[in-house]
Amino acid sequence: MESHGKEELKGPVLHIVVVGFHHKKGCQVEFSYPPLLPDEGHDSNALPEEWKYLPFLALPDGAHNFQEDTIYFHLPPRDGEMKCVYGVSCYRQIEAKALKVRQADVTRETVQKSVCVLSRVPLYGLLQAKLQLITHAYFEEKDFSQISILKELYEHMNGSLRNTPSDGSQVYLGLSPRDLILHFRHKVLILFKLILLEKKVLFYVSPVSTLVGALMTLLSLFPGMIEHGLADSSHYRPRSSVSEDPPLIPTLVEGTVPGAEEFVSVSVTDIANATRELEEAAITADAPAPAPELDQLSPSTPAKEDSHLLRPPQRPSPDSSESDWETLDPSVLEEGQQKEDAEGGGKGAGEGDRPQDSGAFEPSLPITVQPQSSAGGQVVTQGLVSGLDEDQHGLPLAIFTKGYLCLPYMALQQHHLLSDVTVRGFVAGATNILFRQQRHLSDAIVDVEEARILIHDPELRRLLNLSTADLRFADYLVKHVTENREDVFLDGTGWEGGDEWIRAQFNLYVLSLLSSTLQQDNEKLLADYGAPFVSAWKITHNFRVWYSNKHPAMAEITPGHPFLGQYSVADMKLRLSHNVQNSERGKKIGNAVMTTSRSVVQTGKAVGQSVGEALTSAKSAMSSWFSTLAQQPAVAASPTQSPEPSVAE
After folding, report:
1. For the chain, how many structural domains are there in total?
2. pLDDT tens-digit profile of 55-68?
């Protein structure tokens, strides 16, 4: 295996792996090329510690219920140079009696195996297309000892994908925003804003191919996210090795807390909220603000009567240049700000470069003070580094960094990650019902099959209420997607309502939102996005990173919501339709009306035909009223003009 050398390791494909289900040992790696561990053979079952969950990700829960399936999954890096490892797995099962060569360990009626590709690049759909063909051929051999085809797959993929760009249409192969909007309709925008807030979002459906397709398609709506925004999305440690990571363990000032070896980096949002509350309390009492306590910083940490203060780690984490500022003691930040004020005439970091207002992001918050280094006695302030390959507008946003995970498929063995203190949030997919039952471990559960978003916290539901301009935007998307048939795009002439067009609309939405935050007196501009939502978004990690750096290209972006405008009759109708269709109360009322009408109609037929006909007519009128609410306005809104009111029916 050493003959492959370093030259081949530069290819986009790292390994071809076969995972099978053993009747005694469970899921295990049966073949890997090149070997997952250099000192092992290609038929070794040994795994690197970082990839201990690989067999359970490649061969998912409940796989026996499906003849075949496709899984996308992410693995953590194995060394400091590598980023997220992208996995694509094709699962199939075959009857044991159909095998030409039946090995001794095959004791069941069916044989279940997955062939997977571990790649450096997020070409999910492209890898899947190639892998499905090879998996089919591998199973058609009916002799799983014939591994030459898998070695050829490794060589072929590295040869054909070596010069494939990491952006462009090939990245989005198999990800259809059209299908997503047809299924979720206006709720797509709610999901989009939910991830902007960096909440714990769990997608649930079976089979896995449906699950990962919906989740990754949603992420493809974020500009540059698939291409460049997932590099740090899988930085987690297997459960047995969390306590072996001393750089991430915060040092306690006085004594130790039992179980402190499991306490690692603290959420940015938690620190900001706790610090702001303490400062407000100090101002009220006209006394210095006390340092935040451990149980105030992380809601997942058990409350302790004798809480201790956090101080900066002994040495920075090698994983990110941001580790210095995320765990800073507020007193250190205050001292740095005082020095900056004294030397810079009280001018805050970035002040003067962009206007500030009462509703904008406030650099005075302790968590926003950026890493500082001393050069010639001068305090040098640097912007927060996302570690991502950003464009001239600062995109992709640094959402999946610093402990915010993206796990397209999560195995049951990874369940502990939902409550791990190293994980501040996640967007994850699951097929096991146990994940859905643990509602307290997530902020929202997305039932993909029923297109439902279950949000537990009333306050979060309030933050995600779509504004009038948001409803216009979502309605504009739904209308164009539903009115354009699939055959329009088969010849390549379709644009409006197509996948690329939808992504372009979300790109405009994000850029307009970011541009609006840079304007003076921007309360009215930001109100069109929902004032509560914007306030919550401004304290997220991704906004702080973006705002702390200059992006000259943003000067070319027109601020304000793409669908801003005066409130109209059409908006009232759209709002009513949205509330009836999407609120639980509206659904219950609609279902009750229809059920009651149906029951009364049946009773009326027993009494007399005339009564039945009258009630049937009433039922039809009620159905017509509900369908009228669901219809779109007669004249659709354009991105630069508010919708015209349609004639009331």
Report:
1. 3
2. 999 999 888 889 89
